[in-house]
Amino acid sequence: MKLWEYDSRRIHAVHMPQQMNDLEKIGNEGWELIFIKDDLDEEGTATAIFKREKL
């Protein structure tokens, strides 16, 4: 049986190049994006939810 851990992080949601850079860094840590909330703040960031298999 697989066990998962979850994390939420703020990522840039307006500027696509920065968003892709943020997602690539997080993906390199083994995290998989599963959801982006539509809670943009004044800086253009949103909450992203990630999961990865527990070691």
Features:
single chain; 55 residues; alpha+beta; three-stranded antiparallel sheet; 1 helix
Topology, element by element:
Blueprint: E1 4-12, H1 16-28, E2 32-36, E3 45-53
Antiparallel strand pairs: 1-3, 2-3
Low-confidence stretches: none
Q: Using DSSP, what is the number of strands?
A: 3
Range of helix content: 10-25%
What is the topology, as strand order, of the major beta sheet? 1-3-2
Number of domains: 1
Helix tally equals 1
Averaging pLDDT over every residue, what do you get?
Answer: 93
Order of helices and strands: EHEE
How would a crystallographer describe the biggest sheet? 3 strands, antiparallel
Shape: elongated
- Terminal Cα separation, in Å? 12 Å
Beta-strand proportion: 35-45%
Helix and strand content put the structural class at alpha+beta
Rg from alpha-carbon coordinates: 12 Å
What can you see in these coordinates?
It is built from 1 helix and 3 strands. It has a 3-stranded antiparallel beta sheet, covered by helices on one side. The longest helix is centred in the middle third of the chain and has 13 residues, at 16-28. It has one domain (4-53). The two termini are 12 Å apart. The protein has 55 residues and is an alpha+beta fold. Strand 2 (32-36) and strand 3 (45-53) form a beta hairpin.
